[in-house]
Amino acid sequence: MCRVGNAMTHRFVSSTLQHPQIIHSLPALVRKLAQWRTRRERIGLVPTMGALHAGHLALVKRARRRADRVIVSIFVNPAQFAPSEDLKTYPRTFAADVAALARIGAHLVWAPSVDTMYPQGFAMRVVPEGPATVGLEDAFRPHFFAGVATVVAKLFIQCDADVAAFGEKDYQQLKVVTQMARDLDLKTRIIGVPTVRERDGLALSSRNAYLSDSERKTAPTLHRVLVECADKIVRGQAIGGAMTEGRAALAQAGFVVDYLEARNAETLSPVVSAKGGPLRLLVAARLGKTRLIDNIAV
Ligand code: AMP
């Protein structure tokens, strides 16, 4: 960090431009956590795969309100990618990520290597059930939630996190990690943060970078169709009919739909009427080579 001569300037510099400490090894992380714990500081964690955007930064801001110290983990987790998926091409923008985190006051970037997370001989997997087996993402990415649960459990333990922030953008994942923390008696409390969107409604996602110009113009249709379906249900149309029309509208716009479903917002179990409690509409669809997911409350 640059040195400056007067105390006022120094305070200004350190409160606005302090770079987060970057840690790659577990022993260094343990030493840092011990310092914070001696001072009885609460630790917040934001797990990410990097390529940070304003959605990730909203999680950091929220975690800062609930913790004295915020760790952002950046780890592209091989265990949650199938061999056919985009592990190799997933965007990696580490320097820009750290600069963005400096601007919003994250304290530490935890960036372990694959070998640190999964050393030779690693032989453990957390296999979630309940919200992880309801036939949404799990039906199309069967490897996904065990990969997520395993890495998130490790991150919670490594970072000794009191709270961890997750985006509603990945709604099923939010439910899975909440259930996991509860069922494994982990002390980490989960905070869900609303989805941050572009002005045209498209949910921010690191994978939006894959969209061509013309796909980018089509992509907001995903959110628009969700809103139209929610309006129809609120106005009394049968859920099944609204969903069928929604799928047709997406196909018409050029999407290949994996699913568009109305589910119970808590359990994610299928619903036939709006009477059984709050609803969530969830969608996954492919536009060219890019798979997009989104969801909204009804
Ligand atoms: P990822 O780096 O894609 O694994 O996402 C890391 C975290 O950021 C997850 O908890 C996501 O749900 C969250 N996230 C991703 N996109 C958004 C968004 N547009 N708004 C809010 N949270 C998001």
Explained architecture:
The protein is α/β, with parallel strands linked by helices. It has helices spanning 7-17, 26-38, 54-66, 94-104, 114-117, 137-140, 144-159, 171-183, 213-218, 221-234, 239-253, and strands spanning 21-23, 43-48, 69-74, 108-110, 163-167, 189-193, 256-264, 279-287, 290-297. The chain has a 6-stranded parallel beta sheet, sandwiched between helices. Helix 7 (144-159) packs across helix 8 and helix 10 runs antiparallel to helix 11. It is globular, with a radius of gyration of 20 Å. It starts with 6 loop residues before the first helix and ends with a strand. The chain binds adenosine monophosphate (AMP). Adenosine monophosphate (AMP) binds at residues 48-49, 55-56, 58-59, 166-167, 169-170, 193, 195-196, 203-206.
How are the secondary structure elements laid out?
Elements (H helix, E strand, L loop, with lengths): L6 H11 L3 E3 L2 H13 L4 E6 L5 H13 L2 E6 L19 H11 L3 E3 L3 H4 L19 H4 L3 H16 L3 E5 L3 H13 L5 E5 L19 H6 L2 H14 L4 H15 L2 E9 L14 E9 L2 E8 L1
The protein binds adenosine monophosphate.
The site of adenosine monophosphate has 17 residues, from α3 and β5.
The residue-averaged pLDDT reads 93
Task: Provide the spatial order of strands within the biggest beta sheet.
Answer: 1-4-3-2-5-6
Rg over CA atoms: 20 Å
Beta percentage is: 15-25%
